[in-house]
Amino acid sequence: MKFWGGFLVIVGSISFIGFVFVAIVSKLFPLSDNPIIQAIQNDRYYCFLAPLTLPALLVAIYFHWLSMKLFKHA
After folding, report:
1. Is the CB of residue 63 less than 8 Å from the CB of residue 72?
2. Contact 47, 24 (CB under 8 A)
3. Contact 16, 46 (CB under 8 A)
4. Which pLDDT score is estimated for 62?
5. How distant, in Å, are the alpha carbons of 15, 41, 74 from that of 38?
6. Distance from chain centroid for Cα 61
7. What average pLDDT score do residues 7-20 get?
């Protein structure tokens, strides 16, 4: 059980670091000759994905809280 917990924390951390690199850090570097890094630097989708997902996440959290309140007091 500890192995899977540590494994999931490591995978989540690597994914988060990768997303931060793609969304923020790669835009700060000078243009590259590598076509993959250049495509990441020119991308305008993922840098807006997380900020625009937050309002939907807040609505989902509110509905989850509301449904739990209704279930407990019904």
Report:
1. no
2. yes
3. no
4. 97
5. 20, 5, 56
6. 16
7. 93
Q: Is the dihedral of CA 28, 24, 14, 33 positive or negative?
A: negative
- Measured CA angle at 50 (ends 46, 55), to 5 deg: 140
DSSP per-residue letters across 34-51: SHHHHHHHH--SHHHHHH
How many Å apart are CA 52 and CA 46, to the nearest integer?
10
Distance from C-alpha of 27 to C-alpha of 29, rounded to nearest angstrom: 6
Q: What is the pLDDT of residues 23-71, one digit of tens each?
A: 888 888 898 898 988 888 888 887 788 788 999 999 999 999 999 999 9
Q: Tokens in use for 73? A: 């007091």
Q: Is the pLDDT of residue 19 over 90?
A: no
pLDDT score recorded for residue 20: 87
